[in-house]
């Protein structure tokens, strides 16, 4: 009896089979390239279509060595792979075009200066969108400070308090998520802006908050529902009152989920332009006071630059979009870091 | 509502219990102060438990045994007002702690639960807390100030039989422990608020034999200081760990108490033939 055993993975395909299918794919890609060179198909889209047609033909007319089951398996594999590429392609395409078109204007001055003394037509080494970045962050911060507690509280009302109006609250929140963003802006315009007599970051934040609240509240509710009743019972069995148990047991248990709820809300509103049109307007210079008048923001910056329509201003708009993506990405990373820090 | 005969019958059982206790003078002086009188429980229209009158002897382990669905766990949850968290739940009768009905109007349920702790079937340490925070969580939850938290921490973990295993990693997450360790952590957590009575709802049913044995030792040590009431499906466990046993049964209707006595007597010469059949494994 041999005591030596070599570890193997009988459930995986043999190396040679994997290598062969890799080579087949490579060959298909090359043939598709040649076909694109000599026929009416053009560009990456045409190439993808040809490659898919080739792969489909090959898969459907594969030789008889394969069993019926294996042939079915490979067809399903091809269709699912193609579907995932189709679903993924637009996202990647947006990301790549923003990256390539935006990187032209991405110079140090873009993230430190404002447009007070620069016209949109000026060279890209003059002026910047720092005032818009500050404005966007300021408004989103205020909106988060207002809506995160409100959203978590309404989630708590539905899951913990289970009050008589839980159903009503849930329906109202759900229907709030259907409010068109321009309506949120107009609502704040007719109430807050009219009353204070000026556009301001606070007005913009309130309009964004209206859009943010349903997302935050819904996500908080879903997250709070995940807390096992066992933990609540354990809290009560230790002589805790409900609010104490909620504060010490329930909320910390889903801390990272609640941070995600806030993040989803931020992601929902940071690119909103319509509500800001009627509330924060825009500005070409730095504004740090949230109640002192019109303030710039990244979406409004992009919108304004696109409207001007000259080459340099459009470049500025693309760079603004890139910065917006980077800001969202940065906020997500920061939140993931904060949420993950307490995991020991 | 119904079942007048059952409540009459259970009063009879209650007298039996009283007789048993009064037979032994020591027992009477050591009555823990926890008793139920004609306790009933409902879930909506479902009458789950009928007319249980029982006194719990102090500094001892009382096992609640009986087949599934006979109302043992319901009865246990009635004892520290956890029953009322179930929607549509209702109850009747009295649960008295030192003569005071804990269901009387004006009684603070949180204060009662502080005195009557509970350990659950599935280990449920708080996942967002460390081992240390888990043990001391009751203090924060119930607003209790303690001068020396470190010695309390060590004392509780030692009594739960977990100190040696975790003393070097008190700041690790409670979830990083094994199932048996987690359950002992939950016991330590219950002990930190110094309850007079500890209720345990099948505390070993989710654990392996080794951990079960460890927890049974813990329970016996605990009973030197406090009163323990334990629900168990395991006859061997009941005979190993409990000093007194109460046998519950259902005839399809609400569960009721058949008899309660010293464990030795329950397992050898019970008054009721159904008890004998059950503890010998003839049904249930």
Short description:
The complex is a heterodimer of chains A (344) and B (284). With 344 residues, chain A is an all-alpha fold.
Can you offer a commentary on this structure?
The complex is a heterodimer of chains A (344) and B (284). Chain A is mainly α. Chain A folds into two domains: 17-104; 130-340, MetI-like fold, CATH 1.10.3720. Chain A is 70% helix and 0% strand. Chain A is flat. Chain B has a single domain (4-279), classed as P-loop containing nucleotide triphosphate hydrolases (Rossmann fold), CATH 3.40.50. Chain B has helices at 4-23, 25-29, 72-79, 109-115, 131-141, 149-159, 163-166, 179-191, 209-222, 235-241, 263-268, 273-279; strands at residues 31-43, 46-57, 61-65, 89-97, 100-101, 116-119, 197-201, 227-231, 244-250, 255-262. In chain B, strand 4 (89-97) and strand 5 form a beta hairpin. In chain B, helix 6 (149-159) crosses helix 8 (179-191). In chain B, 50% of the residues are buried. Chains A and B meet through helix 8 and helix 9 of A and helix 4, helix 5 and helix 8 of B.
Helix-strand layout with pairing:
The complex is a heterodimer of chains A (344) and B (284).
Chain A: H1 15-38, H2 43-60, H3 68-102, H4 130-161, H5 166-176, H6 181-196, H7 201-225, H8 229-237, H9 242-253, H10 255-269, H11 274-277, H12 298-308, H13 311-340
Chain B: H1 4-23, H2 25-29, E1 31-43, E2 46-57, E3 61-65, H3 72-79, E4 89-97, E5 100-101, H4 109-115, E6 116-119, H5 131-141, H6 149-159, H7 163-166, H8 179-191, E7 197-201, H9 209-222, E8 227-231, H10 235-241, E9 244-250, E10 255-262, H11 263-268, H12 273-279
Helix pairs in contact in B: 5-8, 6-8, 8-9
């Amino acid at each position: 009896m041999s005591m030596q055993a070599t570890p193997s993975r009988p459930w995986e395909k043999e190396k040679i089979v994997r290598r062969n299918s890799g080579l087949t794919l490579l060959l298909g890609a090359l043939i598709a390239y040649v076909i694109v060179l000599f026929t009416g198909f053009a560009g990456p889209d045409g190439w993808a279509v040809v490659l898919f047609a080739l792969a489909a033909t090959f898969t459907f007319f594969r030789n008889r060595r394969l069993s019926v089951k294996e042939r079915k398996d490979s067809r399903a594999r091809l269709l699912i792979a193609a579907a995932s590429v189709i679903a993924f392609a637009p996202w990647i395409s947006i990301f790549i075009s923003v990256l390539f078109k935006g990187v032209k204007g991405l110079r140090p001055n873009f993230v430190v200066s404002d447009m007070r003394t620069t016209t949109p037509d000026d060279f890209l080494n003059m002026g910047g969108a720092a005032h818009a970045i500050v404005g966007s962050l300021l408004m989103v911060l205020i909106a988060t400070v207002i809506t995160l507690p409100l959203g978590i509280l309404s989630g708590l009302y539905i899951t913990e308090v289970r009050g008589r109006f839980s159903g009503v609250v849930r329906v109202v929140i759900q229907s709030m998520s259907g409010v068109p963003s321009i309506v949120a802006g107009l609502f704040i315009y007719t109430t807050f802006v009219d009353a204070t007599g000026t556009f301001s970051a606070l007005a913009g934040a309130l309009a964004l908050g209206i859009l943010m609240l349903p997302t935050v509240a819904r996500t908080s509710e879903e997250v709070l529902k995940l807390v096992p009743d066992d933990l609540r019972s354990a809290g009560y069995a230790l002589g805790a009152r409900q609010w104490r148990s909620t504060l010490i047991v329930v909320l910390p248990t889903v801390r990272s989920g609640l941070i995600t709820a806030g993040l989803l809300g931020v992601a929902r509103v940071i690119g909103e332009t319509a509500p800001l049109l009627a509330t924060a307007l825009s500005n070409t210079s730095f504004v740090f006071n949230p109640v002192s008048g019109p303030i710039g923001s990244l979406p409004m910056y992009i919108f304004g630059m696109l409207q001007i329509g000259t080459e340099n201003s459009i470049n500025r708009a693309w760079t603004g979009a890139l910065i917006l993506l980077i800001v969202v990405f940065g906020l997500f990373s920061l939140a993931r870091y904060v949420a993950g820090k307490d995991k020991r | 509502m119904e079942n007048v005969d059952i409540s009459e019958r259970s009063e009879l059982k209650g007298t039996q219990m009283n007789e048993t206790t009064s037979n032994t003078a020591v027992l009477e002086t050591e009555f823990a102060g926890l008793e139920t009188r004609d306790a009933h429980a409902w879930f909506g229209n479902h009458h789950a438990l009928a007319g249980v009158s029982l006194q719990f002897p102090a500094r001892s382990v009382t096992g609640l045994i009986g087949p599934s669905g006979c109302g043992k766990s319901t009865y246990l949850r009635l004892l520290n007002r956890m029953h009322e968290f179930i929607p549509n739940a209702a109850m009747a009768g009295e649960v008295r702690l030192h003569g005071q009905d804990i269901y009387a109007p004006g009684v603070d349920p949180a204060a009662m639960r502080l005195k009557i702790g509970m350990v659950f079937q599935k280990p449920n340490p708080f996942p967002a807390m460390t081992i240390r925070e888990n043990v001391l969580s009751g203090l924060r939850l119930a607003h209790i100030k303690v001068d020396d938290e470190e010695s309390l921490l060590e004392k509780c973990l030692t009594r739960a039989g977990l100190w040696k295993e975790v003393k070097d990693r008190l700041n690790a997450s409670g979830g990083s422990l094994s199932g048996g360790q987690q359950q002992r952590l939950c016991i330590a957590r219950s002990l930190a608020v110094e309850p007079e009575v500890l209720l345990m709802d099948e505390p070993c049913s989710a654990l392996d034999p080794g951990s079960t044995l460890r927890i049974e030792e813990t329970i016996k040590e605990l009973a030197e200081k406090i009163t323990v009431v334990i629900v168990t499906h395991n006859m061997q466990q009941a005979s190993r760990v409990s000093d007194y046993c109460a046998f519950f049964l259902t005839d399809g209707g609400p569960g009721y108490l058949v008899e309660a006595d010293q464990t030795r007597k329950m397992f050898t010469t019970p008054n009721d033939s159904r008890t004998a059949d059950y503890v010998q494994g003839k049904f249930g």
